[in-house]
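Key result, reporting period 2: structure in, sequence out.
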């Protein structure tokens, strides 16, 4: 009795310690306890250095707000969606001899190079007509202004062009966006190249074309209903070939940025999946040791529903097609059937042994 009481107290103490550990993990965003949140990651050093020279009249920087929408498992065609929802122009005009009559963003190129298939390039343009603005005197700031610790700018226009609906870019190539067959281990990464092409028309009628490395605020959903963690490395640099530059960049030696984007299933599901599989295998391995058929029926029925319930615990709650999770659950059902078969084989062998023992100890009819 005392041992049972001690064991119960240990269970209660362990539950209290586990609760404290979980609370600390949630508060500190430890690994598997990371909460579903919206995050914004920025690259602060993006600017056009030529625009900061004396007498320059050029785009100093452009801000982009881009949302990343991870793949949904219920969609028949897996896709990642990027939404360009806002742009801010910073145009420096330090030239007293000429004014800027019009400033345009002609295109925003977003290209993806899968690390496992570097010869494949996906992505393209956020399709829109050139977004042109005419700088107005009331939008001009002559005094120096420090912009988010990235640079100090003077004699500039800050202009917010209207974007009524976000411009969308989707990628669906299987070499780029991993299929969910390997759920919950179907992670994939994108080496991303982004370039902005702009055009300036001066008051004397001349035009100037160039490219720009944009300042980007990436809005990412760290997890949630789609069951993805999106990790973005705005400082990642990787080599891109001359062929890639010639085929995909507007100006091969112009401004562009490289960003690493990684999509992973939440760590909680990647850890819990093998735990449940091992636990269920160990439980099923005990089935042949049961003593009564009624107990076998009860245990088997409980396990049938328990295995089916793992789909709801480990899955995102939507149709995903065939995945490793489904194959593993079917394997557990097969294993349960095999264990039940062994139970009956053991019962038959035990029955035969009992009959043999009775025949050995029973007296002969001749005696």
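The corresponding designed sequence is given below.
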């Amino acid at each position: 009795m005392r041992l049972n009481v001690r064991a119960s107290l240990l269970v209660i103490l362990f539950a209290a310690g586990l609760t404290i550990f979980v609370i600390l993990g949630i508060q500190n965003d430890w690994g598997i306890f990371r909460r579903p949140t919206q995050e914004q990651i920025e690259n602060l050093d993006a600017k056009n250095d030529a625009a900061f020279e004396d007498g320059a009249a050029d785009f100093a920087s452009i801000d982009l707000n881009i949302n990343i929408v991870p793949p949904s498992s219920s969609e028949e065609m897996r896709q990642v969606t990027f939404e360009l929802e806002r742009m801010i122009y910073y145009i420096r005009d330090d030239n007293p001899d000429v004014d800027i009559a019009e400033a345009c963003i002609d295109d925003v190129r977003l290209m993806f190079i899968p690390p496992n298939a570097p010869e494949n390039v996906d992505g393209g343009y956020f399709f829109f007509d050139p977004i042109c603005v005419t700088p107005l005197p009331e939008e001009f700031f002559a005094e120096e202004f420090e912009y988010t610790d990235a640079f100090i700018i003077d004699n500039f226009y800050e202009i917010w062009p209207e974007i009524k609906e976000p411009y969308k870019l989707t990628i669906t190539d299987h070499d780029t966006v991993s299929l969910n067959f390997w759920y919950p281990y179907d992670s994939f990464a994108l080496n991303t190249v982004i370039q902005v092409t702009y055009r300036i028309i001066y008051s004397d009628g001349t035009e100037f074309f160039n490219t720009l490395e944009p300042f980007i605020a990436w809005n990412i959903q760290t997890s949630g209903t789609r069951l993805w963690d999106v990790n973005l490395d705005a400082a990642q640099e990787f080599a891109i070939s001359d062929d890639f530059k010639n085929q995909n960049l507007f100006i091969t030696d112009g401004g562009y940025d490289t960003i690493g984007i990684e999509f992973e299933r939440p760590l909680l599901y990647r850890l819990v999946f093998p735990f449940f599989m091992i636990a269920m295998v160990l439980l099923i391995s005990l089935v042949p040791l049961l003593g009564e058929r009624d107990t076998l029926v009860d245990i088997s029925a409980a396990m049938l529903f328990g295995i089916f319930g793992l789909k709801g615990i480990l899955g995102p709650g939507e149709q995903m097609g065939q995945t490793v999770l489904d194959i593993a659950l079917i394997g557990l059902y097969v294993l349960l059937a095999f264990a039940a078969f062994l139970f009956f084989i053991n019962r038959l062998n035990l029955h035969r042994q009992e009959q043999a023992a009775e025949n050995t100890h029973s007296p002969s009819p001749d005696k």
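Residues 106 and 129 are 7 Å apart (CA to CA). DSSP finds five helices and 16 strands in the chain. This case is discussed further under Risks and Mitigation.
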